[in-house]
């Protein structure tokens, strides 16, 4: 699996007075895409947390191109952009699914930490999760 595609609909509460999706919601939609990305790999945030692995965001970026509006159907495309011993990154694209218009692109970087918030080396803490992500990362680099 090279990418994960997830669909969400813009709710009325997601919009501002101008009828456009509030800018911070895109970061929430990135999280939705990221969670589904892991589910597509048959591992979830819940599974990682049970294994005492947490992924706080340490960097986030979003470039806004076009607004999403109430009731728009959005497609969130999520890809692993890099994998290192103590962190990983994701790239996102959000499209208006009905018009195929690219609305935003974004990136997040996450650290691998334990329940006390201390950095961990994923390949040592959980070789199974590391192998799944490493195989995906290698495959992605060969095809991109």
From the alpha-carbon coordinates, what is the Rg to the nearest angstrom? 16 Å
The proportion of residues in beta strands is 25-35%
- In CATH terms, what is the architecture? Roll
Structural class: alpha+beta
Distance between the amino and carboxyl termini: 13 Å
Order of helices and strands: EHHEEEEHH
Instruction: Give the count of structural domains.
Output: 1
Mind explaining what this structure looks like?
With 144 residues, the chain is an alpha+beta fold. The chain has one domain: Hotdog Thioesterase (Thiol Ester Dehydrase, Chain A, Roll). It has 4 helices and 5 strands; from the N terminus they run βααββββαα. A 5-stranded antiparallel beta sheet has the order 1-3-4-5-2. A hairpin with a 3-residue loop joins strand 3 and strand 4. The radius of gyration is 16 Å and the shape is elongated.
Which secondary structure elements does this structure contain, and how are they paired or packed?
Elements lengths: L3 E6 L15 H16 L4 H6 L6 E8 L8 E11 L3 E10 L4 E11 L10 H4 L1 H17 L1
Antiparallel strand pairs: 1-3, 2-5, 3-4, 4-5
Quick summary of this structure?
With 144 residues, the protein is α+β, with helices and mostly antiparallel strands.
